[in-house]
């Protein structure tokens, strides 16, 4: 009888322990699930709402900028609104910037067009506590927090290095700069100054004339035709915009001057890359649009979370020639073979 009572008591005690153990396990599962749900919820909820203003939505350059911004937005779990007129229109660009300020977003990335008062809007954003990062074109007079891009002086300098290499330091050069109203004339002048600074020690390299294009490709073609018919023996051309680079290349082809005229330009559109591969354009220089987009958003994150960022974030210069394109192609093939 005593044994039976002891056995019943033991069973009851074990049952209590078992029930308590089950309750503890259920509680732990609940806590784990709840924690996970909170983590998932915090991941799903965007940390910030940023706003990007670009000069247009069709230029491949700005599409790459957008791609960089959007990839950074995924990495840092933020929402980004990307707004731009279809074609260059500074008035509309300014309107988008105004909308961003009124919306009281967490941060703004903006291109700055020449000739319009972006400064007061950027300062208004600053006064409201909205950090502003300028991209490609800067506004040093404003209270922007940082500029992301490449100095135009350096772009001109790198273009001159290409020209020196292509002509072996002997050339009569024409420069074609764009006078499109949306471009910063200060930036264009800095490109020219950078170019001139790099060739100044080469006695047999001379800039014969600087031309200004006003109507895009057609104008660049007309200017190139004038250059080719000129009697000043110009044998090299430097263009500072992708539109003029394309127009000049096309006219060199039309006039059967491939091999006689060295062309150094700007940009990396598919058409420009095709001209480089065919040897019609010796090479081009440009800012790195993807990196520019990515770094500009990363700069806003640094401002928001560390209240600190460099006022100038240099994204470097991309130099494109037949050699660099070949090297890039070779690297891509290696990556594909490695994945296989």
Structure description:
By secondary structure, this protein is an alpha/beta fold. The protein has 2 domains: 49-149 and 290-309, Rossmann fold, CATH 3.40.50; 152-287, Rossmann fold. Helices cover 54% and strands 18% of the residues. The chain contains 11 helices and 12 strands. The strands form 2 sheets. Strands 2-1-3-4-5-11 form a 6-stranded parallel beta sheet, sandwiched between helices. The protein has a 6-stranded mixed beta sheet with strand order 7-6-8-9-10-12, with helices on both faces. The longest helix is centred in the first third of the chain and has 43 residues, at 2-44. It is elongated, with a radius of gyration of 30 Å. The mean pLDDT is 86. Keywords: Membrane, Signal, Transmembrane, Transmembrane helix. This is Sugar ABC transporter substrate-binding protein. GO terms for molecular function: carbohydrate binding. Belongs to the bacterial solute-binding protein 2 family. The chain crosses the membrane at residues 15-33.
């Amino acid at each position: 009888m005593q044994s039976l009572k002891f056995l019943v008591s033991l069973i009851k005690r074990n049952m209590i322990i078992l029930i308590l153990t089950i309750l503890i396990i259920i509680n732990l599962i609940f806590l784990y699930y709840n924690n996970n749900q909170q983590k998932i919820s915090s991941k799903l909820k965007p940390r910030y709402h940023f706003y990007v203003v670009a000069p247009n939505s069709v230029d491949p350059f700005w599409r790459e900028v957008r791609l960089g911004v959007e990839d950074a937005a995924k990495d840092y779990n933020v929402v980004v609104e990307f707004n731009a007129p279809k074609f260059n229109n500074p008035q509309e660009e300014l309107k988008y910037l105004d909308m961003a300020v009124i919306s009281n977003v967490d941060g703004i990335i903006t291109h700055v067009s020449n000739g319009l008062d972006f400064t007061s809007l950027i300062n208004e954003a600053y006064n409201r506590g909205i950090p502003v990062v300028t991209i490609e074109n800067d506004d040093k007079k404003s209270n922007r927090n940082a500029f992301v891009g490449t100095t135009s002086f350096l772009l001109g300098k790198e273009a001159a290095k290409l020209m020196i290499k292509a002509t072996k330091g002997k050339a009569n050069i024409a420069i074609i700069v764009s006078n499109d109203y949306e471009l910063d004339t200060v930036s264009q002048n800095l490109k020219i100054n950078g170019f001139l600074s790099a060739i100044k020690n080469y006695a047999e390299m001379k800039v014969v004339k600087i031309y200004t294009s006003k109507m895009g490709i057609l104008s660049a073609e007309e200017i190139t035709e004038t250059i080719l018919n000129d009697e000043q023996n110009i044998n090299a051309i430097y263009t500072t915009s992708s539109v003029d680079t394309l127009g000049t290349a096309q006219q060199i082809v039309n006039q059967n001057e491939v091999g006689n005229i060295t062309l150094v330009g700007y940009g990396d559109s598919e058409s420009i890359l095709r001209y480089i591969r065919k040897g019609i354009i010796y090479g081009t220089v440009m800012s790195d649009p993807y990196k520019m987009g990515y770094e500009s958003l990363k700069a806003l994150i640094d401002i928001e979370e560390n209240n600190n960022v460099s006022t100038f974030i240099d994204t470097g210069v991309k130099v494109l020639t037949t050699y660099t394109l070949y090297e890039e192609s070779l690297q891509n093939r290696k990556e594909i073979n490695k994945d296989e």
